[in-house]
Specification:
This protein is α/β, with parallel strands linked by helices and 129 residues long. Helices cover 32% and strands 22% of the residues.
Length: 129
C-alpha cells in the first residue's frame, strides 16, 4: 500500500500510464466529459474535492510543460484564475467552447467536485529529463 502521494488506485494507475505530450483535463463537476479519454471521477459532493486540492495533488506527481484554460475563467472565477496563473505563468487561454473541443483529445479526465464555474484546465504532460 502506498503511504504518500495520490492514494486513489485508479488515478495513481492512470497517471503512471501518461507520457510526454499527453493531456490531462482537470475539471469541475459541471464540465461535459467527452467520449474517449479515460475518466477518474473523484466528485463526492458539491465542492468535494475542490479543484485546487486535486490540482495540487496532480502537480506534485506530474511533469507539466503547459496548461490551457477558458478565457471566461478570469471574470467568472477569479480565485481559480489566480491559482492557474500563479502555477502557469504562460497559461494559454481559449474560449470555453474551444477547451471542450480540446478536451476530447485528452488521455485522462479527472473530475473534481468543484462547484464554481470554469474551474477546468487541460494540463500538457512534459518529461522529467
Amino acid at each position: 500500500m502506498k503511504k504518500t502521494g495520490i492514494l486513489n488506485r485508479h488515478l495513481s494507475g492512470a497517471l503512471a500510464e501518461l507520457g510526454h505530450g499527453d493531456g490531462v483535463l482537470v475539471c469541475d463537476a459541471g464540465m461535459p466529459i467527452p467520449d474517449g479519454p479515460r475518466v477518474v471521477d473523484l466528485a463526492f459532493r458539491a465542492g468535494v474535492p475542490s479543484f485546487a486540492e486535486v490540482l495540487d495533488g496532480l502537480l506534485a506527481e506530474l511533469v507539466v510543460e503547459g496548461a490551457t484554460a477558458a478565457t471566461e475563467l478570469r471574470e467568472a472565477n477569479p480565485a481559480a484564475s489566480a491559482l492557474l496563473e500563479g502555477e502557469f505563468p504562460k497559461l494559454e487561454l481559449v474560449s470555453h467552447e474551444r477547451l471542450k473541443e480540446l478536451s476530447a483529445g485528452a488521455r485522462l479526465v479527472v473530475r473534481t467536485g468543484e462547484a464554481r464555474p470554469y474551474a477546468n484546465v487541460l494540463l500538457h504532460c512534459g518529461v522529467f529529463f
